[in-house]
Write the structure tokens for this entry.
Amino acid sequence: FSSMITDIAGPETCNTYNMLKLTKSLFQTSENLSYIDYYERALYNHILSSQHPVQGGFVYYTPMRPQHYRVYSQSQLCMWCCVGSGMENHGKYGELIYSHTANDVFVNLFIPSRLSWLSKGVILSQQTHFPDEETTQLIVEQAKGDFFAINIRYPNWVERDALKININGKEIPVDAKPDTYINLRRRWKKGDKINITLPMRVTTEGLPDGSNYVAFLHGPIVLAAKTDTTDLYKIFGDGEQFAGYRARGRMFSLDSMPVLKSSESNLADYLKPVNGKPQTFKATDLISPDTYKDLELIPFYKLHDARYIIY
């Protein structure tokens, strides 16, 4: 795993594309919510980050090497495997937001959407700015007046007893725990509204090999810091088939990277939110040397056209 930090390659988008297909199948056969937790993280942190928000190009490798960068495809020059699967990726955000049994519906992901459950005569919509905001609202737009359950996923990144739900303005008790569903069974009618609060907290996660690297997450969202835009050599790939997708600009020495300097074990406590900027944090008292103290940690999927640090 340490080679992930030293190499300029990093995770390949096609791999995550296939992992999402596998994870979806495993969830459908096991109903194990740990698969949805993985799916959510992969969707936001890799898939959403893998397309340029303006030019539209797709990323092959996502380097984890500190202060390196990504290369994006160009439509007339690049047809890497991650371009073909990349086109499919961004049409699949709606695939696993909802699932259902014969009688009940399950809300798995917190994404703006509208569900038409034709066999039950139910239309359910979801309005949210998640993950920039910690809330989502479900609205019953159509129902036949039958008893059925709307099951809300309790994510593992929300602490126990922290998730809140109110229905039509009335708070209801939540006795579920993370990685289970909250079962809301009643006779639903048109106009019913379910408001859900999903408090997000900052956590750290190390590499699986136990090496001295950590990443910060806000809820399920991986945070990263933009360092600079120095020497972004061929940030938009050329037609070179076997090397055009690699970020071949200058590699900076790992010894020159900012480090997290503290004797405390809970590094997440050092991150402080930046007023007026959703999902943006600083760690002024943690980052060393001083030249890097003002780095802002933001969701990686929002960071483009720059060198960055995740670990």
Q: What stands out?
A: The helical segments are 2-6, 13-30, 34-47, 81-89. The CA atoms of residues 153 and 181 lie 5 Å apart.
